[in-house]
């Protein structure tokens, strides 16, 4: 009688264990499939129009951290005019959200370091950015507006 009870108990434990495992897998599959369906059914509000900032005429308005700067970009060249200064920089795009600027004719040791620019937020005709100079801890945030 004990053997029958032990066998019955063992069989019930196995059935319950299998059901729990099977139930967990089914629940996990349901969550994954629901998430996928949800992601594909949502209309994306984000439009990647960052390509429009690779060429054209831009402006950084004068503010607390910047003097007014006019920028002309074409191919791999950027011409920056601020005050009575005009500088020519090479521009290299890593992707639509990150590029590097380097002065072609540096005028001081600070201009010898590359500038790494990360695009943080894109709007219709502007983007917010963070610039880091060389490998220092210096960074500054600003906004560039496309004017042509």
Give the helix/strand layout.
Layout (H helix, E strand, L loop, with lengths): L1 H40 L14 E5 L8 E6 L2 E6 L2 E11 L2 E6 L11 E8 L3 E8 L5 E8 L2
Antiparallel strand pairs: 1-2, 1-8, 2-3, 3-4, 4-5, 5-6, 6-7, 7-8
Q: Order of strands across the widest beta sheet?
A: 1-2-3-4-5-6-7-8
Q: Low-confidence parts lasting 5 or more residues at pLDDT below 50? A: none
Overall pLDDT: 81
Provide the structure class: alpha+beta
Strand/helix succession:
HEEEEEEEE
As a percent range, the share of helical residues equals 25-40%
> What percent strand?
35-45%
Please give the radius of gyration in angstroms: 29 Å
- Report, as a whole number of angstroms, the end-to-end distance: 92 Å
- Envelope shape: elongated
Largest sheet geometry: 8 strands, antiparallel, barrel
DSSP helical segment count: 1
Q: Let me know the number of strands.
A: 8
Which short descriptors sum up this protein?
148 residues, alpha+beta, 8-stranded antiparallel barrel, 1 helix, 27% helix
Overview of this structure, please?
There is one protein chain. The chain is α+β, with helices and mostly antiparallel strands. Helices cover 27% and strands 39% of the residues. It is built from 1 helix and 8 strands. The protein has one helix at 2-41; strands at 56-60, 69-74, 77-82, 85-95, 98-103, 115-122, 126-133, 139-146. Strands 1-2-3-4-5-6-7-8 form an 8-stranded antiparallel barrel. The radius of gyration is 29 Å and the shape is elongated. The termini are far apart. The relative contact order is 0.12.
């Amino acid at each position: 009688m004990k053997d029958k009870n032990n066998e019955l108990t063992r069989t019930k434990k196995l059935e319950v264990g299998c059901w729990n495992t099977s139930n967990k897998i089914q629940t996990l599959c349901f969550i994954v499939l629901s998430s996928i369906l949800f992601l594909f059914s949502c209309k994306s509000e984000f439009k990647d129009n960052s390509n429009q900032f690779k060429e054209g005429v831009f402006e950084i308005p004068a503010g607390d951290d910047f003097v007014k700067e006019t920028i002309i970009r074409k191919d791999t060249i950027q011409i920056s005019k601020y005050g009575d200064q005009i500088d020519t920089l090479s521009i290299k795009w890593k992707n639509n959200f990150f590029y590097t600027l380097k002065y072609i004719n540096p005028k001081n040791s600070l201009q010898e370091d590359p500038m790494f620019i990360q695009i943080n937020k894109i709007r219709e005709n502007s983007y917010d950015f963070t610039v880091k100079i060389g490998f220092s801890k210096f960074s500054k945030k600003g906004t560039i507006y496309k004017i042509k």
